Every structure is written in structure tokens, then in C-alpha cells.
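S1.2 Input.
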Amino acid sequence: MGSRFERWVHGDWSTPVVSGVLVLVSFALRQSAGGAGDVTLSPQWWLDAGEHAAVPGTLFTLADAVMLAAAVTAGWGITITALRALVARVVGIDLLVAAAAIGAVVIGNFWEAAAVTFLFATGHALEAATLGKTRSALAELVAVAPDHAVVVRDGEQLEIPAAQVRVGEVVLVKNGTKVPVDGEVLGGTGAVDEASITGESIPAEKSRGDRVYAGTISRAGFLRVQATGTGADSTLARIIHRVEEAQDAKARTQAFMDKFSRWYTPAVMVLAVAAGVVTGDVVLALTLLVIGCPGALVVSIPVAIVAGIGRAARRGILIKGGEFLETSAKISVVAMDKTGTLTEGRPRLTDVVVLDPRLGRADVLRWAAAAEAGSEHPLARPVLAAADEDGVGPSEIPGTVVPVPGMGIMAEVDGQRVLVGSPLLLERYGVADARGVSQVAAALAADGKTPMTVAVGGTVIGVLAVADQVRADAAEAVSMLHRAGVTKVVMLTGDNRLVAEAVGKATGIDEVHSALLPEDKLDVVEQLQRQGHTVAMVGDGVNDTPALAAADIGVAMGAAGSAAAVETADIALMGDDLLRLPEAISLARRTVAVMRQNIVVALATVVLLLAGVVAGGLTMSVGMLVHEASVLVVIVNAMRLLRSSGHATVDQPSRPSLTSVGSRG
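S1.3 Output.
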């Protein structure tokens, strides 16, 4: 009980509650005294001051004392904050309110002093409460952080704090419990709810070799997980850190408004003093101080940014900060890599064409796999997998592997130079097209496959073909991008023209650029920017790094498993869901619209209050009431962003046929 009372005393609501009670007591005392104010306390110097100055013989009454206490209670913290800001050479809203309240007390207008400070303190408490709700997404992320873990040590199960799990330890995840670490499933099967990380509501099936993330929840089954990331090194911790930074990062509009406020507040003080000197009306000067408070203007931008970024985080979309949120609202062109973005990124080997009559399928596959064993490119995996299935997989990594961006690789295997890649790679190393390799590659490409020529010691021995599937949601994502206001969706790929155009036609892409090297993708992005477009680039962050860096917004997909993507991408889509991209752009546009609405509300309020002062009849207390109401209006308006945008679930189109995965680009 004592701790609850102590929390309340130090909370946001204690000051306005106590001040409000004192105001009511003051009114009650005045009412009980018949309005005559005859409960005298002294000192006599208040005789001709304040709201009772027109009543001869009025003294400083008990009701006045209680009303003054109400003003001091509510205004003390405001004044301290204003003085601290002044020490830091910041002239803020609190200084305007404090100056007005002190001035009202000096002239004996205790009710106005109490009303202004009480309303300001109440508004501050309401702002804190509603702003807390706009940060609810961050609070939800923190809430899902696991507390305990069951680890296997020396053959025994031990329950320990999750932060004490060591990398490499085996953790047991039972049905209904939180996954305490990032890790790889060693054994068991289960279904894991990953909504806190990826935003996906449907549990993901997990089995041996699959990745799991801290903070997700097991909905079925039993898993043995080897920890790869714990505590602050987990994906959840990185997301929380990124959202915290993003919600505090300022948009360009907010930075401008902050600069505006630094000049605006002193200007209001000068205006108030000038009005008081010219008219001789102290009350008018104090009223100008109150109504000139730019509170709604100051809070209008950050509250929208916090709400927008919080809403995005709930949906598995990490936006780096207010500046990137604002830029995302202007995106007019989206450029996409093909492999892993428009396609599923899980290619498989479909063809092995033997061109050397002295060799067989196994020989071609063995040489290609031996070279690819030292490659990190996605195309290496299906070749190595097929070689393992045929029993010709390499036993060791080649001594020399030279990647040739956009073309393929050159490796030294058993003293022989092995080339695996596009026909352009053969030209680069002076290998003659003596066996019609170009025609074979073109025929495979026409079937929607990615051809890879294989040459050993300067002689072409065969062509491999690898194919991927176009994402089931790729066409719908492109359509949604258009509906979200994107004028053009462009594909940038290192694959050949035939394959690229086949994918473009299947997905509804507006413009296809094929056979591109990494620097070519950069050139296309820069050309689009010179045309006046705001460009978002979606890629894998490896071969697309130059284009991602040059684009106005760099987007990483499937970032849940990549710490680098979470930290470096301007927008990170945590789940492997392309539909999140148009959702992110739509949310950015809605957030910027709310920011503009809030600025209009804030400026209109100040103009109307100034008009009320000029027309006469507007008191300090009424001005502060309207001011606080405008602050709440902009906060409530921003909180609309936390609600669902109302997008209906899209029907998934039928799965397209196999298509190319891209040639090293």
C-alpha cells in the first residue's frame, strides 16, 4: 500500500489532483463566507490588489490563501522546469506559463494563476498518459522479452534467468512457453508464434535446422534449441533498441518546428511585454503569454512519429527514424532486386547440359560443385545440394576463389582454373564459345531458368540451369504499391533479358533492367533520382549494396535473421513478406498526413486565441483551457495511427511456375 501511494505521489497526476482539490476548497470557503471574503489572514498589503481590489476593505482571506496554495502547488514544478531550461539557454513553454502565473499572483489574481497552472499540469498529465499509449508497441515488445530459460547443463535441466544463457548451450522450449534465445533447432518439432518479431499471426512450423527468435512463443510441440544469440545480442533486443532510437529520432519537419519554437517563444514574451507597456494593461500582457504557448505545435510532430513508428513495429516493420518515415511518404519509385525479393530465394538445380562428349552429367556437376564450395552466393547452394544427392559433392573448399560480381566465380580446383557463371564470364577470361554455349544458355533462359556455364582449363564442358519460383504475393505486392501511390515499380537484376522479362510480366513490373552489374544498378537508381523521383531500393544487401546506399530509402527483407539489416537498413521488413512494403509506404503517408493536420490545428488554435484577445473577453484561464484542449486534439489525432489501416486480407494468387533466380546479381 505504501509503495502504491509513493508511486502516486511521484506520478504525473498527484500535482493536478492536489491543486484541483485546493481550488475547490477555496471556492467552498468563499461560498461559506457569503462571498464577502471576511475570513482575514493579513498582510494588509494585499488590500488594493487582485480580483477584490474593486471592493473597499477586502483583505487577504483564507479563501485567497488556499487559492494561492493551489497556484503554488501546480506552478512550482513548472517554474523549476522553466528555470532549468533557462540555465541551459532554452526558452520554452514552461517559462511562458510560469511568467503568466507569477504575474497573476503579483497583481492578486489568484484564481487566474491557479487556473492556468492547474490546467497546464493537468494537460501535462494527460499528455504523458496518451503519449504512453502511443509508445504501446515498444511496451509490448519489452513485455514479450523472456524472463527464464530451461537449459541442459551436465545432463540436467536447470531453470535460469534468460540473460544468463550462454551461447552454444542447449535450451528446451516446451509448448506454451517463450523462446528465451535466438537459436537453431537441434531436435523436435513445433509451431512457434513469431508475431512479436515478424508481425505474422500464423505460427511457423519449426524442425531441425530452423531458426527461432527470443520472445516468440511455442504454440505446439517440443524443441531443443542451441543458443546463437542471448540477452542484448538477440533479435528482439536489437528490435527494441532500434524502435527506441527511431521513436526519438527527429523528422526534418520536427527539426524545423523545434527551431521555430526557439524563436517563437521569446517573440511571444517580447510581444506580451510590448502590449503591456503600450496599453498599460498587465492582464492583457499575461493573457498573451498564456495563449501564445506553442504546446500543440511542439507536440504535433513527435507524437505522430512515435505513433507511426510504433504501429509499424507492431506489424514487423522497423523504420529507422522520423526522417526516414517522412521520406518514405514521398516514395514514387520502388526498385527491386529479383532473387529473394520477387522470387522466393530458394533455387534448385533443374538442368545439367553436357557439352563435352568425353564427360558425363556427374563430371560436369562435380567440377561445378568443387568450384562453388568456396562461394557464398545463393546460386552455390542448389549446385552443392544436387552434387551431394548424386554423390559427387566436394570434400574440401578450393584453394582460390575469386568472385566476379554480376558474372560468376573463378576457382582453382586440382590445379585447373574452373569458371562457373554467365556467358559474360567466359568472354572476360577469353574462353571461346566453341560448343554453342550461348544458344544453350539462351534456350534455358527462355524457359525461365538461370543458365550457368561451366568451363575447366579454358574449355567449356557444360551448362547448369537453376530455377526459383516467383513469390505467390509478388504480383499483389506490385499492385498494392501502385495503389499506395508509387508511380513506377522497377526490377534491377543481373539476370539475362529473357528471364528478367518473364518475371516482370508475371509480376506486373513497370520497367525491367537486366544483365546489370552492381555499379549498373547504382547508375539506374541515380538516374531515377535525377528524374526527380524519390527511390526506395529493396535488395539483399550484398550485391545490391551500392544501390541500397544511393537510394533515398534502403529496404531489407526477412531481416529477423540479420543483425546487420536491422541496424543498417532504413526500413527493415522483419518477416519474409513482400506485402509489408506497400503497407509501410501507406503508413508513412498516413503519418505525414496526420503531422500536417496537427500543425494546422496548432496554428489555427493560436490564431483564434489571438483573435479572442483582440476582440476582448478572453481570460487567461479560458486561453489555457483552449490551449490544452488543442494539445489533446493533436495527440488523439496521432493515436489514430495505432489503429489498423483497414486493409483487407488479400487473396493469394496461384503459385507461378518456376523461374530464374538471377545470375550473381
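S1.4 Remarks. The longest strand covers residues 217-229.
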